[in-house]
Structure formats: C-alpha cells, structure tokens
Design a protein that fits this description.
Blueprint (H helix, E strand, L loop, with lengths): L14 H6 L2 H12 L8 E3 L2 H8 L3 H14 L3 E4 L4 E4 L2 H5 L5 H13 L3 H10 L4 H12 L4 H7 L39 H8 L5 H18 L6 H11 L4 H16 L7 H11 L6 H33 L3 H15 L3 H8 L1 H7 L1 H7 L1 H6 L1
C-alpha cells in the first residue's frame, strides 16, 4: 500500500519558517516530514547515511543539519544509538486517530519504538482529546515506564495514565531557573506514588509518608533547618504528587543556589519562605550562561552560512570550464545524478546542497583570496 504524508499549505506562510529558516532548512524539514521512512506517529528509524544518500549531502552536512534542527530550531530529536528520529511538532497537526486500521497502525508503530522517551514527547505534544487518551493507554499497555523516562530527560512531560489529566506536569529541573513563581507541587510532578496508594488499599498511607518524612527530616537537620508542623503539612502535600527522590533533589538544588548567593544572610528562612509560598530560587548565573552558549551557537551558525555564501560566490567567479569540472566531480562522488536535474530547475538549491563539497574542492584557492 502506498504511503502518503500531508503537508499543510500554511507551511510556506508560517512566520517562523519564513524568518528563521534558510532555503536549505526548508528543504531538509520537508524531507524529514515526507521521506519513505516516516510513520503515522512521527517517530521513525533512519540512518544518517540514508539521509545523506537521499538528499545528495555529505554525512557531515546531515550531521550539522540534524544538530541545527535539534538545538536551534528545536523541531526534532535524533537518537544516534537507536537511529530514531522524532518530529516534535508532528502530533499537533498530523496525528489523527482515524478508524480501526489507523488505530492498529498507531499501536504497531508505538510497539516498534526503541527510545521510550520519544513516546513521552509524542504524548505530551498531542492535542487534548480522545486521541491523547488512546495513545496514553497504548503507551501504558506497552509497558513504558513514564516515571523512569521523565527522570532521564529534562524536556519530558510525565504521563498520568490513571485519569489522563489535562494539566501537563513536567519533570524539568531547568524550569526552576526560569521563574520564581513556579508551583513546587506542579512542576516536575511524578504521579506514580498517589496511583500506587489508590490502587492498593492494604497499604497504610501514614506509614508510607512516615518513611519519606523521616528522610526529609534528616535532610532538614543536615542543612540546619528547623522542621515545624507547617513544614510537615507542606511536605505531605508535595509527597502526594512527587517522588521522595525528586523532592530531595529539588531541595538540595535550592539550597545550593542559596549558598552561592552572597546577599542571602539566613538560608533556612529564605528556603522555608519559598517552600510555603510554592516558589523557588532563581539561578541567574545559569540562565546567563545558557543564553551566552545559545548565542555562541547562533553566531557560529551564522558564520558558517556566511562562509558557505562566500565560498559559492567565489566558486561562481571561477572560469566556467573549471566550475563544470568541479561540479561533475562532486556529483560523481555523491553518486546522485539527480543533482543535475536539481541544478536545471533550482540552481540556488543545487549550490546549497553541495556547498560543503565546494568548500573542500576550492579550499586552497579560496584561502588565498
């Protein structure tokens, strides 16, 4: 049976695509959404070598584009170990529940995914409807440990499969650096404990909380913070929706930030105030460092694209006979005769596709300029 992939016509009028994507970006993104390995769920297996062959690119170019789409555009994730790729925006517009054949296909594709983190990412991007419930149930039946998956990634939303809550809760420690008003009982919630308690009436709720409270009290004592009844009530409230390990890690992170702030005179008091208000301390240095790193990546990318343009401009200034010789060598090396057809119909795209190879071929001449 032939496979078809729908691309909305609004793709070309999308503001982000118009302003942030180069011609090469658009070409690559369309390929990622329409190649023969794509699936109904937007997660599929594909090697870099296959992408390079299909596109007529070098392996280096494919690797650079994958990195650009993952770190700059944030539209995909690629697992080099499982050779799997996920289109992060696919579920929003392209994933439909359909009839039984489509549901059976979705079920089959979910079972074939090796990187379980990708399933959680797909679930979190699904629209809030029966499709999301359907997929959540499939993930659950497929024995996906959403609790473990959430702990492995800072960008993953946890899945409460007991009642398919509409409120998305993210186990993202970095969220605590973005706003001092993030509620502790919602950010990073892992709802496994409450579900276990509700499903096993033989457990003594108080005993479960007593064990966790003991660990919390030991941590408070170690950090020289008085543990009052008000603290206990707040901690029990947090324990209903969060694992003990997550809470302790979060608390330690908050203490470490406070210890590094010279203007904080009473760490215990500030920590307690945040706890009672449901807010948290902000690590401004971490934010600034992250922004600097992102800006550095963007600048490097801009320089790379500028160098590509300069290389192509220099290449076009060479005698025609020399240009044709170099182009023929590149086409033969890439083993992609379709490049000649692309040149005839879209010359600018052709030169973008082989820009990396052009730089290699004219390296010595170009450096002399």
């Amino acid at each position: 049976m032939a496979k078809f992939r729908q691309i909305q016509t609004s793709f070309w009028s999308n503001t982000y695509i118009q302003e942030e994507m180069t011609a090469e970006d658009k070409y690559f993104y369309l390929y990622l959404m329409t190649n023969e390995f794509t699936t109904q769920i937007g997660i599929y297996s594909i090697t870099k070598k296959q992408m390079a062959f299909d596109l007529g690119y070098s392996m280096e170019s494919v690797t650079a584009l994958l990195q650009r789409f993952e770190t700059y555009h944030k539209l995909i994730k690629y697992d080099s170990e499982t050779r799997e790729l996920i289109l992060l925006k696919w579920a929003e517009n392209n994933l439909n529940i359909g009839g039984k054949p489509v549901q059976d296909l979705i079920k089959k594709e979910i079972e074939q995914v090796k990187n379980k983190e990708f399933l959680t990412l797909m679930y979190s991007s699904c629209p809030e409807n029966s499709l999301k419930n359907f997929i959540g149930l499939l993930i659950y039946k497929n024995n996906v440990s959403y609790n473990e998956t959430a702990n492995e990634s800072s960008d993953v939303s946890s899945i409460n499969l007991s009642n398919f809550e509409k409120n998305k809760k993210t186990n993202n420690n970095n969220n605590f650096y973005e706003s001092s008003d993030v509620p502790l009982n919602e950010a990073g919630a892992i709802n496994n404990k409450e579900e276990i308690i509700n499903n096993n009436h033989n457990h003594d709720h108080n005993n479960i909380y007593d064990r966790d409270l003991k660990k919390i009290k030991e941590w408070f004592k170690k950090n020289e913070i008085d543990f009052s009844k008000k603290h206990e009530d707040k901690i029990i409230d947090l324990l209903k929706n969060n694992s003990i390990d997550y809470i302790l890690n979060l608390f330690q992170e908050q203490i470490d930030i406070l210890k590094n702030k010279k203007d904080v005179k009473n760490i215990a008091a500030v920590f307690s105030a945040h706890l009672f208000k449901g807010t948290c301390e902000v690590n401004l240095q971490a934010i600034e460092q992250k922004e600097l790193e992102q800006e550095k990546i963007k600048n490097e990318e801009r320089k790379e694209y500028q160098r590509n343009d300069e290389a192509i401009e220099f290449f076009k200034s060479l005698p025609q006979e020399q240009r044709l010789k170099i182009e023929n060598e590149i086409i033969e090396e890439l083993k992609n005769p379709m490049l000649r057809e692309i040149k005839r119909n879209a010359e600018s795209v052709f030169y973008l596709m082989i820009s990396q190879k052009i730089k290699e071929k004219i390296g010595v001449l170009w450096k002399k300029v």
